[in-house]
Design goal:
CATH architecture of chain B: Roll
CATH class of chain A: Mainly Alpha
Radius of gyration of chain A: 21 Å
CATH superfamily of chain A: Ribonucleotide Reductase, subunit A
CATH topology of chain B: Ubiquitin-like (UB roll)
Enzyme class (chain A): oxidoreductase
Distance between the termini of chain A: 46 Å
Strand order of the largest sheet of chain A: 1-2
Organism (chain A): Aliidiomarina taiwanensis
CATH superfamily of chain B: Beta-grasp domain
CATH class of chain B: Alpha Beta
Helix content of chain B: under 10%
Largest interface: A-B, 30 and 27 residues
Number of helices of chain A: 16
Oligomer: heterodimer
Helix content of chain A: 55-70%
Shape of chain B: globular
Order of helices and strands of chain A: HHHHHHHEEHHHHHHHHH
Bound molecules: FE2/S2 (inorganic) cluster, fe (ii) ion
Number of domains of chain A: 1
Distance between the termini of chain B: 27 Å
Structural class of chain A: mainly alpha
GO molecular function (chain A): metal ion binding; ribonucleoside-diphosphate reductase activity, thioredoxin disulfide as acceptor
Number of strands of chain A: 2
Radius of gyration of chain B: 11 Å
Strand content of chain A: under 5%
Order of helices and strands of chain B: EEHEEEEE
Largest sheet of chain B: 5 strands, mixed
CATH architecture of chain A: Orthogonal Bundle
Shape of chain A: globular
GO biological process, one term (chain A): deoxyribonucleotide biosynthetic process
Strand order of the largest sheet of chain B: 2-1-7-3-5
Family (chain A): Belongs to the ribonucleoside diphosphate reductase small chain family.
Strand content of chain B: 25-35%
Number of domains of chain B: 1
Structural class of chain B: mainly beta
Chain lengths: ~375, ~90
């Protein structure tokens, strides 16, 4: 079905499924089939921040004093996060916008992906401060074997969905031979590819950042790289919101609250979705091994990091209706939580709203202690 | 208006919590010495998700995380009666 940027048919968006219904026409939010996406947009906008607001200039001294193994850990993590956000800054738009059918979800996807571009820009901000020429760090991302291995797993479900949607847009349903390869395109096949893709993105948002987050916050616990840690805190807050959205999409399908055919697809693909999740967990544990291959850092080692990945994975699996799969039921890094708190502990609406806007210039002359529990 | 309720988490000993207007159940349980999972503490990440086996809660802030039937997010609700929850 050919994509149109303004569908002139009069469709009732309240009767549309999230995906593979009619293309969206009027960007209206006065009525919503799934109002959660509008609420996520509001939340994401209230989180708005700019990397330049965080002063990272003091990190340079800390970085220079690090051991070689710690530098390896720090830089490798930044490379990996750069890869993740490079993918996320474009792929939700390219993969999901051509097939989305609800205005509130369409706008959520754009808002979500836009926030990922802020993350990408923040890595340049951090690296420019650490290196006169950050070029080699970025250049290594496409040649580094460890990163490449992850990149192909992360992008393959997106790429597959995008390619099949392109075929469908041009030729409709049927069997097509392209460059000597045969591709069968049907609505059902497209929906299966969509389901697997969203599960892969969910795993990305749910666990792929956490090894890196743990290392960053372990440095911060030693009062090192605190500018960087402030930025990563803001990123972590955003990522926690992104994973909420992919969990909602998966759960709406699974519980039959959206497209009935997607409920069947979710049942059919349950095993595969489980494997997507657990293989992402294994990859992250391998990443922990790679980080520590030249030596450890104070406060963290490979074993405890793997336990933390399993702990987070259990929480995330339960959120999409899987039984917790790993033995690690308690949090092996309790200090992580204080960096993942999104706001001050106030839950009164006015207070929690206001502090989300309190993103001001952070002066490096103010020590971390002066902030106390105050969140950025 | 503060009120006091008895809460049982898993099969741990029952604790008493006092919930005020702006003190979440999560906070109240922590003050009673329990440790629960949490990240955001503002109702969007789902890390604190529990199953409510008996009792009633009231939300201070609308949760953004997906909450299935029978589940609660203690970081954004308060106890309205004695509770029994699985975490
Ligand atoms: S701690 Fe995030 S939802 Fe309760
Ligand atoms: Fe991101
Ligand atoms: Fe994200």
């Amino acid at each position: 079905m050919r994509y149109t940027t303004f569908n002139q048919n009069n469709v009732n968006p309240l009767g549309e499924p999230m995906f593979f219904g009619n293309p969206v026409n009027v960007a209206r939010y006065d009525q919503q089939r799934h109002s959660i996406f509008e609420k996520l947009i509001e939340k994401q906008l209230s989180f708005f921040w700019r990397p330049e607001e965080v002063d990272v200039s003091r990190d340079r001294v800390d970085f220079q004093a690090m051991s070689e193994s710690e530098k390896h850990i720090f830089i490798s993590n930044l490379k990996y996060q750069t890869l993740l956000d490079s993918v996320q800054g474009r792929s939700p738009n390219i993969a999901f916008l051509p097939i989305v059918s609800l205005p509130e979800l369409e706008t959520w996807i754009e808002t979500w992906s836009f926030s990922e571009t802020i993350h990408s820009r923040s890595y340049t901000h951090i690296l420019r401060n650490l290196f006169t020429d950050p070029g080699p760090v970025f250049d290594d991302i496409v040649v580094n074997e460890q990163i490449r291995e992850r990149a192909s797993d992360i992008s393959k479900y997106y790429d597959d969905l995008i390619f099949y949607v392109q075929l469908w847009q041009i030729y409709g349903e049927g069997t097509f031979e392209i460059n000597g390869e045969t591709h069968e395109v049907s609505r059902r096949i497209l929906k299966r590819k969509l389901f697997l893709c969203v599960n892969s993105v969910n795993a990305l948002e749910a666990i792929r950042f956490y090894v890196s987050f743990a290392c960053t916050f372990a440095f911060a616990e030693r009062e090192l790289m605190e500018g960087n840690s402030k930025i990563i805190r803001l990123i972590a807050r955003d990522e926690n919101l992104h994973v909420t959205s992919t969990q909602h999409i998966i759960n709406l399908w699974q519980h039959g609250d959206d497209d009935p055919e997607m409920k069947e697809v979710a049942e059919e693909c349950r095993e595969e979705a489980f494997e997507i999740f657990t293989s992402a967990v294994e990859q992250e544990k391998k990443w922990a091994g790679y980080l520590f291959e030249n030596g450890s850092m104070i406060g963290l080692n490979k074993e405890i990091l793997c336990q933390y990945v399993e702990y987070i994975a259990n929480l995330r699996m339960q959120a999409i209706g899987f039984e917790p799969h790993y033995n690690q039921v308690t949090n092996p890094l309790p200090w992580m939580n204080k960096y993942l708190v999104s706001d001050n502990v106030q839950v009164a609406p006015q207070e929690s709203e206001i502090s989300s806007y309190l993103v001001g210039q952070i002066d490096s002359e103010v020590s971390a202690g002066d902030f106390g529990d105050f969140d950025l | 208006m503060a009120s006091t309720h008895k809460v049982q988490v898993n099969s741990l000993p029952v604790v008493e919590v006092t919930t005020g207007e702006s003190k979440s159940l999560l906070q109240a349980l922590e003050e009673a010495g329990l440790e629960l999972n949490y990240h955001c503490r503002t109702g969007f990440c789902g890390a604190c998700r529990c199953t409510l086996t008996s009792g009633q809660v009231e939300y201070l802030n609308e949760p953004l995380a997906y909450v299935r039937q029978g589940e609660i997010l203690p970081c954004v609700c308060i106890a309205k009666s004695d509770l029994s929850i699985d975490h």
